């Protein structure tokens, strides 16, 4: 029977019997190292050495695999030169070996006779082949070290619930070393090499399907087993476990390098990123980011099942807290925990807020108490603590948090990457379920990578406390702005079509999502359209208005915000249904004179599109600039925020169709609403 997916993974994790083909008695040789590991590091299954010329000490030795009883070997590790590999695999197939790990190189030329013979065997046999040209596989729980990895000469991985699949053996060694040094327990590692019979996607799928694996990391150059992508997606969706992937070979140079050392065909980076993202893979940007994500997921396996976890930052440095808060706020996978007003027991000098600045030198207990206290907040899913040896006694800090583990997960970081925690302390933290990463930015990125994909629907409307609609905005702006005429249906009967019937924007700002806007082109459509919009408006307490059609033109949206650093700033972006997908915004600052604003607008991507782009129409950029300036003036007054959307720019003139705005809290309108 041909084993696949999780069945293959389980076999390689705990083989009952292993034969090392081409084994050497010299542990310094690559062909001797796997046998030495299996004998010396705790493998308890039946072990055979296959050596054509000599008996090896302390192990049953045979001349060929055919000298062993059929069914007596689960896995064969083939450590022969390339020219002897296929013959050995045929012998393995004959005695019923279920899987073979081939560490030999020499198969990179996919059109060469050695590779063609190996591919033919892999395609027609029940024998599953890992490799060739791989470092091997590691099953930690059973000490199934089917590998020549030099990392095991230095240290051994601890048993754990993280899986690893790497197409590169050298990079896999690096990741293995990183996990060992950062005290993350490993379940299995697969180095897949040239992947003649078994691909990385199948093995990752198998790992995800195991009960004793919580997260998987992968280094991927190219996909060789795309037929497994559907099952991988199913495993990711059904288990909620994360698969972190570092995808290499994005550039032409990278693709050529991948083809050179493995013979692997690598396609479009855009295609691979899109397809893997659709499958639910969590793609990382660097080797460090991959290791960080595995650290956090390995220590906090529940985090990858938390949608948009709320983060609390406790920092010895206010600046580090600001950096962390910015990173959290900018990442849609995370949110800042709202702790203000909670009855949390903190040092008398501190008050519940996020981020929480604990700037006291030589008061380690205050810092650790703050971390522990913030972890008890009902609104906090995870705490990021930023410490430093300049202010804290690290031995005391670790002893305190280990003695009284926080209620919520904690990721502890240092203020500087050049002042990190000693290894014995990070190991103690890991034992208490506290992950350690060197800096706050790396911690936030790793937490975001672990966060479950959000299924929360976006709100379809805003309340009057958030924004106010076109009626209120128009009263705040100059009378000469070119609005497309509108009137409330309660004040005037509907005109002759065509027109638009929509919510007035008193409580509903995002009309399309709620069905609160309809186009009426004929008299027959009028009654149904008005009734439909009226029903939605009654539900949300809004009024119904009708508005004339705007003439055709180039649609943009203008957003103006009162920036706390620079004052009023306008952002002009493409409008319509593609507003959130198209880039190329113009940024106009109120501190510039009128002429400078117009120059910046013309020099932007929006300006290029408006002014005869590729021989097209020339739209009225000057009038758009005038409208933007009036919006900036309004936000310098009683408005805190203003959005004009859509703004239709014509060859001559501009039409304003809709708007939303927010009063300043200290303005008469803002004070009244408060």
UniProtKB/TrEMBL annotation:
UniProt GO molecular function: ATP binding
Domain of life: Bacteria
UniProt xrefs under Pfam families: ATP-grasp_5, CoA_binding_2, Succ_CoA_lig
Domain CoA-binding: 12-107
InterPro entries registered for this protein in UniProt: ATP_grasp_subdomain_1, CoA-bd, NAD(P)-bd_dom_sf, Succ_CoA_lig_flav_dom, Succinyl-CoA_synth-like
Protein name: Pimeloyl-CoA synthetase
């Amino acid at each position: 029977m041909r084993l696949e997916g999780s069945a293959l993974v389980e076999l390689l994790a705990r083989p009952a019997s292993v034969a090392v083909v081409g084994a050497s008695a010299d542990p310094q040789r690559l062909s001797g190292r796997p046998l030495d590991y299996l004998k010396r590091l705790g493998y308890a299954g039946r072990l055979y050495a296959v050596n054509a010329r000599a008996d090896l000490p302390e192990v049953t030795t045979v001349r060929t695999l055919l000298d062993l009883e059929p069914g007596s070997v689960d896995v064969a590790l083939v450590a022969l030169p390339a020219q002897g590999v296929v013959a050995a695999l045929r012998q393995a197939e004959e005695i019923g070996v279920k899987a073979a790990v081939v560490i030999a190189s020499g198969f990179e030329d996919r059109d060469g006779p050695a590779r063609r013979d190996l591919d033919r065997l892999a395609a027609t046999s029940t024998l599953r082949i890992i490799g060739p040209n791989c470092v091997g596989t590691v099953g930690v729980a059973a000490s199934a070290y089917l590998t020549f990895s030099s990392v095991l000469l230095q240290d051994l991985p601890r048993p754990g619930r993280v899986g690893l699949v790497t197409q590169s053996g050298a990079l896999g060694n690096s990741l293995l070393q990183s996990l060992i040094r950062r005290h993350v327990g490993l379940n299995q590692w697969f180095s897949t090499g040239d992947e003649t019979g078994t691909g990385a996607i199948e093995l990752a799928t198998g790992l995800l399907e195991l009960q004793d694996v919580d997260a998987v990391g992968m280094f991927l150059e190219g996909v060789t087993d795309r037929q497994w992508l559907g099952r991988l997606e199913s495993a990711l969706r059904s288990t909620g476990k994360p698969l972190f992937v570092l995808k290499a070979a994005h550039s032409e140079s990278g693709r050529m390098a991948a083809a050179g050392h493995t013979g692997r065909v690598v396609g479009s980076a855009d295609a691979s990123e899109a397809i893997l993202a659709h499958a639910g893979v969590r793609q990382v940007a660097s080797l460090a980011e991959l290791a960080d994500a595995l650290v956090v997921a390995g220590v906090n396996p529940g985090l990858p099942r938390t949608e948009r976890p709320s983060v609390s930052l406790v920092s010895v440095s206010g600046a580090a807290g600001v950096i962390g808060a910015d990173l959290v706020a900018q990442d849609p996978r995370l949110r800042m925990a709202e702790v203000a007003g909670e009855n949390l027991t903190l040092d008398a000098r501190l008050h519940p807020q996020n981020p929480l600045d604990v700037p006291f030198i030589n008061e380690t207990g205050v810092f650790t108490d703050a971390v522990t206290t913030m972890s008890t907040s009902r609104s906090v899913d995870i705490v990021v603590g930023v410490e430093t040896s300049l202010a804290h006694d690290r031995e005391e800090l670790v002893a305190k948090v280990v003695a009284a583990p926080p209620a919520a997960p904690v990721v502890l970081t240092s203020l500087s990457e050049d002042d990190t925690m000693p290894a014995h302390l990070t190991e103690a933290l890991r034992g208490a379920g506290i992950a350690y990463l060197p800096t706050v930015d790396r911690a936030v990125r790793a937490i975001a990578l672990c966060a479950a994909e959000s299924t929360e629907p976006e709100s379809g409307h805003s309340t009057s406390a958030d924004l106010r609609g076109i009626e209120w905005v128009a009263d705040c702006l100059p009378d000469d702005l070119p609005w497309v005429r509108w009137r409330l249906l309660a004040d005037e009967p509907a005109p002759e079509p065509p027109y638009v019937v929509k919510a007035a924007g008193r409580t509903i700002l995002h009309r399309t999502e709620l069905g609160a806007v309809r186009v009426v082109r004929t008299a027959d459509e009028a009654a149904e359209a008005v009734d439909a919009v009226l029903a939605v408006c009654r539900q949300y307490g809004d009024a119904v208005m009708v508005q004339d059609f705007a003439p055709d033109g180039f649609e943009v949206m203008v957003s103006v915000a009162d920036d706390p650093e620079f004052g009023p700033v306008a952002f002009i972006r493409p409008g319509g249904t593609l507003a959130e997908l198209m880039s190329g915004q113009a940024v106009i600052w109120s501190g510039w004179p009128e002429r400078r604003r117009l120059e910046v607008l013309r020099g932007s991507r929006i300006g290029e599109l408006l002014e005869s782009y590729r021989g097209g129409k020339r739209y009225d950029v000057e009038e758009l600039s005038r409208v933007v300036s009036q919006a900036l003036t309004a936000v310098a007054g009683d408005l805190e925020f203003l959005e004009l959307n859509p703004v239709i720019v014509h060859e001559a003139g501009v039409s304003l169709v809709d708007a939303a705005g927010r009063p300043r809290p200290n303005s008469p309108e803002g004070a009244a609403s408060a």
